[in-house]
């Protein structure tokens, strides 16, 4: 494109809330063949809320929730925030929050005073958290976290988790002293425009893909809801960029849409990286496009803008 065409298109983009970092990115977007979407916070609203708490052992529900919240209180992960909110409500009101309560309770939960002291805390990206409480190891996270540490998951508990995941919820397992003591189910609804946008991309001849650190069952349930056939799940944070490169192997132009810190290597590896405006600063820095309105519709608008800009000068 000529410098003038680039300038005009950049201006049109800016008016739509689509920030384009340079003419190269603008040119590449017209040829996009695959759009790889992060799941959490990109296809979904990123408003995780606990919907299920199930204790497998004889532990009291309140004790279970306080244990889990204590372990998660130092984590920055959106799942951790949802869990602390949920446990906080139970602690102060003596009952589980309703969906309505959860929507209203978006402010910081007061975590002082009711949580256990935590030692040797570590956050394990793509897996969960681990720490010592009362001298025993507590683990909160996915299957991989527990099984890698040798915690066994009894078949009936596994079935309970699988059933949650088949309904698009993320199952979070909790181990205390190397025994599985319970599980939480977390829901994160799809963005309202997601289904229409995926359909629109397909009609433009572009193939949508999901990449996520979440488990296969949840990822597949979400993919089915939104109409995506190609799913890459249980991808460790460093692995998302490898997924992008695998699509680029035959010379295809690949776009990545993401919001998280763990999406930034993939945003950088993609031919066209698109960050959700509400995403983390690191993702925004790594991207070629920033979608300021946080709407997935702007993925289509960005490709359209590129196609039109380049068609005009040919
Ligand atoms: P995503 O691709 O969805 O952004 P992440 O790499 O952040 O995923 O996390 C992948 C999975 O690791 C989550 O779905 C969850 O099962 C687990 N996980 C990560 N951090 C935590 C945490 N703080 N508490 C519980 N589970 C976690
Ligand atoms: Mg995300």
Describe the overall structure.
- The protein has 314 residues and is of the alpha/beta class.
- Helices cover 44% and strands 23% of the residues.
- It is built from 14 helices and 13 strands.
- It has helices at residues 3-16, 23-29, 39-43, 61-72, 78-93, 99-104, 143-148, 155-166, 194-203, 216-226, 239-248, 264-269, 281-286, 297-313, and strands spanning 18-20, 32-38, 49-55, 119-124, 128-133, 136-141, 170-176, 179-187, 207-211, 230-232, 253-258, 272-276, 289-291.
- The strands form two sheets. The protein has a seven-stranded mixed sheet with strand order 1-13-12-11-2-9-10, sandwiched between helices. A six-stranded antiparallel sheet has the order 3-8-7-6-5-4.
- Helix 1 (3-16) packs antiparallel against helix 14 (297-313), helix 4 runs antiparallel to helix 5 and helix 8 (155-166) runs parallel beside helix 10.
- Residues 38, 40-42, 258-260, 263 line the site of magnesium ion.
The Rg value, from CA coordinates, equals: 21 Å
Can you give the helix content as a percent range?
40-55%
Alpha-carbon distance between the termini?
Answer: 9 Å
Going across the biggest sheet, name each strand in turn.
1-13-12-11-2-9-10
Shape: elongated
Low-confidence stretches: none
Helical element count? 14
Largest sheet: 7 strands, mixed
Strands, count: 13
Q: Round the mean pLDDT to the nearest integer and report it.
A: 93
Note the beta-strand portion. 15-25%
SSE order, one letter for each helix or strand: HEHEHEHHHEEEHHEEHEHEHEHEHEH
Broad structural category: alpha/beta
Which cofactor or ligand species appear?
Answer: adenosine-5'-diphosphate, magnesium ion
